[in-house]
Amino acid sequence: MMKKIKLMSFEEWEKKKLKNPEFRKYARQADDDPFVATALQLIRARKKKNLTQSQLAKLAKTSQEAISRMESLDYRGYSLSVLEKVADALGKKVLITLT
Amino acid sequence: MMKKIKLMSFEEWEKKKLKNPEFRKYARQADDDPFVATALQLIRARKKKNLTQSQLAKLAKTSQEAISRMESLDYRGYSLSVLEKVADALGKKVLITLT
DNA sequence: ATATTATATATCAAAATTGATATAATGTCA
DNA sequence: TGACATTATATCAATTTTGATATATAATAT
Question: Which GO molecular function annotation, any one, does this entry have (chains A, B) (predicted)?
Answer without folding.
Answer: DNA binding
